[in-house]
Structure formats: C-alpha cells, structure tokens
Amino acid sequence: MGAEGEVLREGKLFLYVVGSASVFISLLTSLAAVIRASGDTKRPMIVNTLVNIFNVGIDYILIFGWGVIPPLGVLGTAIGTVISRALGCFFMFQVLKKKGFSLSLKEIYTNTNYKEMIFLSISAALERLVMRLGQVLYYSLIAMIGIKTYAAHVIAGNIESFFYMPAYGLSTAAAILMGNCFGRKDKEEGLEYLKSIIGISIIIAVISGMILYLFGTKAAFVFTEDLEAVAKITTALRVDAFAQIPLALGIVFTGALQGIVDTKTPLYSTIIGVWGLRVVGIYVMGMVFGMDILGVWLAIAFDLTIRAAILFIRLRKEFRGIL
C-alpha cells in the first residue's frame, strides 16, 4: 500500500507478531458466534470488553515500559494484542463450559461432518475477503487523490463507525431469530421479527443521519484542527448522513440471510457493490471528474444503496406469498 522507511519496518514487525498468532482472533470470533447463536449476546460482549481493557493496559505497559520491562514501542502493541486475545479465548471457553459444552481437541477433530459448515462459511469468508481486497484498492485510489483527502476519508470512516454499531447488533439478532424460526419452519413468525428489526433499524438510521449532518463538523474538530481537512470530513459525513438507512438495512439483511442459510447472496452483492460500483465510482467521480472526497462518498453511498436493494429482493423472494 505504499509504506516505506520506518513505517514499513514497524508495520512488518507488528504484522509478523499479530499475524503469526491469528489463531486467537479466529477462535475468539468463532466462539463468540457460537455463544451468540445460543441466544446469549451478553457474555460475548462482556468478554470482548475485558479483552479491550486488557489490551489497553498491557499495551501501555509494554509500549512505554514499566519497572524491569523495557519500552518496546510497536512491538509492545503487537504482544499486548496477542496476549489479550489469548485471554479472551480462555474466557470464551469458560463460558461454553458453563453452558454445558465440553470441548477437547480430540473431540473437535474426530468423526465430524464438516461439509455443511464449509459450504456456509466459504461464501461468508469470501464476502469479507472481497470487501477487504476492494478496500485495499479504493484506499489506494483515495491516497492518489491526495493525502489530506485520504486522512479526511479515514477520519470520516472512524466517526461513521460509531453510528452503525446498532445495525450490527440488530443483524446478530436477525440471524439468531430468523435461524430459529426457519429451523421450526415458521416463516410467518420470522417475517414478524424481520419487520420489527427493519423498523428499529430505520429509526436509528434516521437519527444517526441527522446527527452526522448537523454535528459532523464538530466531530471532525475532535480529530484535527486543519480547516481544509475539516471541510472534507464535513462533506463526507453529510453525504453519509443520507446513506445511513441503506447502510443499516444492508447490514441487517445480511444477518437475516445468514440466519436462513444463505451466505451466497451477500457475497454476490459485495462483488457487485464494492468492485462494480464503489471502486469504479471512486475512480470516475473522485479522480477523473475531480470531485475529490464528494465523489468518493457518493460512490460509497451508491454502493450501499444497490447492495441493500439486492439483499432485499432476495429476502422478498424467500417470503413470497406472505410478504
């Protein structure tokens, strides 16, 4: 992605340590999903909160040093991240044991049918991979537009992230509730849950959009005092304010489809949206037509809207006859 010098050296060091221990983040994510699927969303939240607290505390000690521990800088951040994730895995296993799940490595790798799990997970994993590869590409395009545009984009994205967290919570609820209803072959009840979740999502999205539009400039000043960067961030957030509804619905629809054992449609929608619309749109509007960050976020908004529409059409087809 263009890093060089000290940034490249430190980045490689961090990636070597954290990447080599990626088994912990994989386990942490998977175990949390198992617990949530049982209807318990509280304990994974508590464990992940503890992981973050440990991460901050251990990082602080290892980055700056304490007593006989020397300051390790970026290496300390990497070590702290790995330790906190490992502790999180331990706590998740304890939660599973309390729920009556007795797990051992011997049992995990004997006489298990992986076919259905692999079928479901490959599409979901590919969907995330397509998204991440697309991000690498369009982030590179944004960096080519200008360093302040890139910085403004990252800051705007960080601000936006605080507002779509409720959608991910509702998406988890949709996956669990839809999975339970379809497991009982009760589509009518599943539809009622979905309607309620959609209604709540839209209300939260409208409120989020209003806050982003009205207070985006003030939020930008929390991150930077550069007036040009603040202006760019404000532009991005005001465009994003109108994309909050499709953003929230797209996240919720993805969870609902995963609950009814459809992980392919989210993959197809991401391929079309991210690669066919977002990347191309950023290049055309942001670079060719010189619309700068306005073009970037218009492309993102268009992508989110089309993806939400594709996912909705798939859900509507599933509930044909009762919707």
Element string (H = helix, E = strand): HHHHHHHHHHHHH
- Strand residue percentage: under 5%
Main structural class: mainly alpha
Q: Regions with pLDDT < 50 over 5+ consecutive residues?
A: none
SS summary, helix count: 13
Largest sheet: none
Kindly, what is the distance between the CA atoms of the first and last residues, rounded to a whole number of angstroms? 46 Å
- Helical fraction: over 70%
Number of strands: 0
Q: Please, how many domains?
A: 2
Basic shape: globular
Mean pLDDT: 92
Based on CA atoms alone, the radius of gyration comes out at 22 Å
Topology, please?
Blueprint: H1 5-20, H2 22-37, H3 42-64, H4 74-98, H5 105-108, H6 115-145, H7 147-161, H8 165-183, H9 187-223, H10 227-241, H11 244-259, H12 264-288, H13 292-318
Helix pairs in contact: 1-4, 2-4, 3-4, 6-7, 6-12, 7-9, 7-10, 8-9, 8-11, 9-10, 9-11, 10-13, 11-13, 12-13
Task: Summarize this structure briefly.
83% of the residues lie in helices and 0% in strands. The chain is mostly helical and 323 residues long.
How does this model look, in words?
The chain is mainly α and 323 residues long. The protein folds into 2 domains: 112 residues, no CATH class; 210 residues, no CATH class. Helix content is 83%, strand content 0%. Helix 6 crosses helix 7. The longest helix has 37 residues. The radius of gyration is 22 Å and the shape is globular. The relative contact order is 0.09.
